[in-house]
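Field guide to reading this record: the first block holds the primary sequence, the second block holds the structure written as discrete tokens, and the final block holds curator observations. Each block starts with its own label. This record concerns DUF1232 domain-containing protein, catalogued under organism Thermosinus carboxydivorans Nor1.

BLOCK 1 — SEQUENCE
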Amino acid sequence: MSEQEKRPEQALTLNQRLKEWARKLKGDVIALYFALKHPATPLYAKVVTAIVVGYALSPIDLVPDFVPVLGYLDDVILLPLGIALAIKLIPIDVLTACREEARNNPPALKPKIWAAAVVIVFLWLAIVYAVYAWLK
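BLOCK 2 — STRUCTURE
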């Protein structure tokens, strides 16, 4: 098999690996939710984790999905990177315990964090007001 024939397989494998990585990270959202409540999680990790989990579990996206390209940018790039950062900040033993708790006691439904939705709505209102004031 020539080198050119191997490249599409490698690209497909890389694509599959990236999808698997993103799916695994999104599966850790519930574990991060439990890590927020864990007493051994450091404060700086709780702050980052609260932002990431709040956004991940918010019923409202910062950039709506119907906006071309940008709408999926947060789901494909920003959210997995935020989850990866939160995972790096949480001590390994705490993360392991929270992953085990998430596996053994999964919530019946994925919890919704309405406070994050309120923050996102206020961000949009501030942006709209700033644009209005600038154009006025």
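BLOCK 3 — OBSERVATIONS
The helical segments are 3-27, 29-37, 43-56, 70-89, 92-104, 114-135.
The chain has a mean pLDDT of 79.
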